[in-house]
Structures are given as structure tokens and as C-alpha cells.
Hints:
- There is one protein chain.
- The protein has one domain: Aromatic amino acid hydroxylase (Phenylalanine Hydroxylase, Orthogonal Bundle), CATH 1.10.800.10.
- It is about 45% helix and about 10% strand.
- It is built from 13 helices and 7 strands.
- Fe (iii) ion binds near residues 135 and 176.
Amino acid sequence: MATETHALASPPAGANADWTVDQDWARFTPEEHRVWDTLFARQAKLLPGRASDAYLRGLDVLKLSKPGIPDYRELNARLMDLTGWQVVAVPGLVPDDVFFDHMANRHFVAGNFIRRADQLDYLEEPDVFHDVFGHVPMLADPVFADYLAAYGRGGQRALGLDALKYLGRLYWYTVEFGLIAEPEGLRIYGAGIVSSFSESRFALDDPSPNRLGFDIARVMRTEYRIDDFQQNYFVIPSFDALLKATVETDFAPLYAALKAQNDIPVAEIVEGDDILTRGTQDYAQGKAA
Ligand code: PHE
Ligand code: FE
């Protein structure tokens, strides 16, 4: 993720100058492939009727149902034809400027390890299942593909404007935890949700979280939780609308204005919110009690 702090300042031994490493697909053990298959089967069953159309189409056209951890060489051949994106392996979290540079050039940096069989639901760092199952299907969608590349350029700019906090929230509430209003109802598209067994139900079905209409400034002011389910989800009307709103807004004056305003705590509703569901916050309160 773009907003973490990173211990490393230069690529670790064995990595290329751009921080990438060879996926070295042949090194994955049968047990590691089985972890992927277990996670895949569990999620694939849950997602029809919950995940956005674009996500489900991506899963299909990229042939991600083929058993085992995907080989990036195979995946990239398909992705290149569809949207020009490529998945590149990195040894762990990379510095923000490296992350944005890859993204602006349509390189999606992905983890190079898979969680252990006894940790299917607990993750400290994104692994191949989160990165590939969660993110990559959306990269097969031409509009979302353009959005993420534009986001990379926006990141390079935000670094210079000391505004990563704000731009990082846009990533969080769209790329990681976004919802979309489709004709048949609300659907999930954020990678953090679609790759999570429990949050893929919570985000749509639970009465606890707020579900608010997407608004760039509102999103950028809103704090988020990294250690539990979200208390707010933001709903876009379409990927076209998301792309248009973000590309056509100059974020520099927006960042300047936001620096003079308070951040909004996770569960708070403020004046002007487009409230689709006002959350009970029972889940969060139950945890605190
Ligand atoms: N419009 C943004 C800016 O002025 C760039 C951007 C586009 C950021 C799309 C995110 C997504 O910085
Ligand atoms: Fe992610």
C-alpha cells in the first residue's frame, strides 16, 4: 500500500533497480498452490451476485480459475492484450515513489509470497492472493485500468505537494474498499473486500457500516481502519463516473483546502453526506465494549 512506512531505502539484494524480482513461479510448492486453490474456491462461490460485473468479467477473461498460483508470464500475456497492464513481483512493500512510478507505467506491484494454510484469514502484508485475486481482475477493465494509471501519476504529483495522506484515502476507499451501485444492487469491487471471506459479506449485508455516495473531498477527509472491517464504504455510480471525476479535478487546490479542514473520524456522518445506509455501528461498538 502506498501509505505505509518502509524500512528499506534501496532495493534489497537480488532485486532489480526498479525493486522488481522474478516471480520464479517454479519455486511454489504443491502446498502453496493448494492454499491458493482453497482460497479461490471459497471466494469464487461467494462473489457472484456480490462482486461487480467488471470484476467477475476480469476473473473470467484472465482465466484465474486455472488451479494453482497464477504464473505472471501467462497472466501478463492476457493482461497486456486487454489493457496494457503487467503484474510485477516485488519482495515486499516498496517506497511510495517506486509504487507510483510503476503504477503510472501500468505495472502493478504484487507480493511474492502466499499466506500459510493455517492463516487463511490473517494477513500482515498483502500476499499473492490479495494482490492477484483481489486487484488484478479489475485491471482487465479498460476504464478501471485507466483510473489506476492516472492514480499513479496523481501519486507522483501528490508526493511533491505533501498530500499523500489525502490521495492515499482515495486509494483506500476505491481501489481497496470501493462499492459500486449496479442496476441489480450494490456490488463490491475493492480488492480488500473481494479477497476477504468475511468482509465480502459484511460490506454489503451488515447493518453496521455507513454506505455513502462517493465524493472526492469527503473521501479525502475520511480516516480509515487498517485492522478491522470498515465503518464507512463509499459507493460510486459507475467506473466511468469515478474516472471522469478524478481525472477532471485538479487535486492541488483541493489538497490546499483540505489542509485547513479537520479529518472526519471513521464512523461520523457530516452535513452534505449522501447517505445510502446510515450504519448502526453495532459491530464496532460491540468490539469496543
Ligand atoms: N486529478 C488528479 C490530480 O490532479 C490526478 C488523479 C487522477 C489522481 C485520477 C487519482 C486518480 O492530481
Ligand atoms: Fe491491496
